[in-house]
Design brief:
single chain, mainly alpha, 1 helix, rod-shaped
């Protein structure tokens, strides 16, 4: 190989090396800049992640507090409803007892009414029978009296009748025309 070609080659290689070194330096600078950008972006993302975590913890804490408050409110309302239910159940039982007592009293009053009514009907029937007996006795007694007095009445009626006839004849009237 001639010396010039070796020299040229070496020169070309040196230039190539310089060119490569310059390229590598440029690439290294760009890589360093990209790395710095990525580090900044990573730091921003880590900060954002930390903020999101912090916000998530705050939201979780608030949700837990609200959940706890709702549970306490629900338990309080549940206790109130249980007390109200016990009170209503007691009122219902009291009303049922009163209704049963009232029904028994009404049934007893109705039985007493029926018994009294039956007694009164029996008394009325007895009184009717006694009055009928008294009436028949009185009418029989009156008939006996009338039969005893009838002959006297007949004579008196006959005398009265005859007298009235005579009076009518004295006035010139025929008693049969009247």
């Amino acid at each position: 190989m001639p010396p010039k070609t070796k020299e040229k080659r070496m020169k070309a290689e040196a230039q190539k090396k310089k060119k490569n070194a310059a390229l590598w330096k440029g690439e290294a600078r760009r890589a360093k800049a990209s790395e710095d950008q990525l580090k900044q972006r990573l730091q921003g993302l880590e900060a954002e992640l930390e903020g999101a975590r912090s916000e998530g913890k705050a939201i979780y804490a608030e949700m837990s507090r609200q959940c706890q408050a709702l549970q306490e409110e629900m338990e309080t309302r549940s206790r109130q409803l249980e007390q109200e239910m016990r009170g209503l159940r007691e009122q219902l039982e009291t009303c049922q007892r009163k209704a049963e007592v009232a029904q028994r009293e009404a049934e007893q009053a109705l039985r007493e009414w029926d018994r009294t009514l039956a007694q009164l009907r029996t008394q009325v029937a007895d009184m009717e029978a006694k009055y009928e007996e008294i009436l028949h006795g009185s009418l029989d007694w009156l008939l006996v009296k009338l039969r005893a007095i009838k002959p006297q009445w007949k004579a008196a009626v006959l005398r009265l009748h005859t007298r009235h006839k005579e009076q009518l004849h004295q006035f010139g009237l025929n008693p049969l025309d009247l």
